[in-house]
Amino acid sequence: MILRNLTLQHFRNYKQASFAFSPQKTVIVGNNAAGKTNLIESLYLLATGKSFRSEKDHQLIQFDEEVCRLSGMVDGEDGEEKLEVVVSDIPGQILRKRYLVNGVGKRRVDFAGNLTVVLFTPTDIDLVSGQPGTRRKFLDEVLDQVDFEYRVAHTTYTKALRQRNALLEQAQQTGVRNEKLFSYWDNLLIAHGQKITEKREALIAFINRQEKDLFPFTLEYDKSVISEERLQKYKQAEVGAGVTLVGPQRDDVMIQAYHPVSKELEEVKYFSSRGQQRLVVFELKLAQIAYLKHQTENKPLLLLDDIFSELDSTNIQHVLNIMRDTQTVITTTHKEFVADMGENVIELKK
Q1: Reduced to 3 DSSP states, what percent helix, strand and coil does the chain have, rounded to the nearest 5?
Q2: Which pLDDT belongs to residue 315?
Q3: N or C: the chain end with fewer CB closer than 10 Å?
Q4: 132-146 vs 179-209: helix crossing angle, rounded to 10
């Protein structure tokens, strides 16, 4: 699938803007604060229905405006499709976020996946060195785009977890547990939590099967199984903590490789250089591309947000190899880095 164009209205710093994209490489050049990352965010939002930067949707709307709209045309196997996301935050009304395909309203679980993306940012190194939530988010980002069952399970689980945590906080404050209510939310969490675990486990197995020429590693899934028995085991501790202590929201993924001295499997973040951690990130992104292609038989859109200033010449070459034969949108402050990369160059002005 190929993204042909994008139109923005009152999105972040864009009052009204339109962009046309090459089927190969499009380079977005601009100074800091010109709106390069906002543009990448809009493309990610158009594909997934979510922002990778903010969980508060009202922040997507331009200051002093009430509605923002994003739309883009995508060429797919079944012809041309128009994708739209509309966010409205009108005083006195509940914030609304609408998704449309060819003018027909969709739920986000049905909207996501019409366009698949793989995002590269300077903060991707946190996949190796950062907190468990960053690695869980990576798994969600991959699965959410191509697995409808996962989208439903993850959306339902997240809402149910919020409700159950509210009950735990109430029980903590009052000293009283409403067992009937807990039973309902427990059953919901167990059913959808186990589906999330199953899907994450399969994705990790897929990644482990991929050849890794840049930096060999293995993912170890440290899963927090959710079951009736485990919820009973942590029943009192959860009331004390005021939050649910078991389930996929507690998962981690350990990235392991053989230590050059001990020759034992150890977590990469404890012995690798920053350059080696970058190579691990590239391998993870290559695995993401492979998985999306495997699931959809289409190449995803690559979004590279100002990453060239962070890389040495060797790693830049790795990025160029990834970009080969794949539609790519690149942002940079330094036009010289990408002078020969794309036939379509867009310069942003503050």
Answers
A1: 45, 25, 30
A2: 78
A3: C
A4: 80
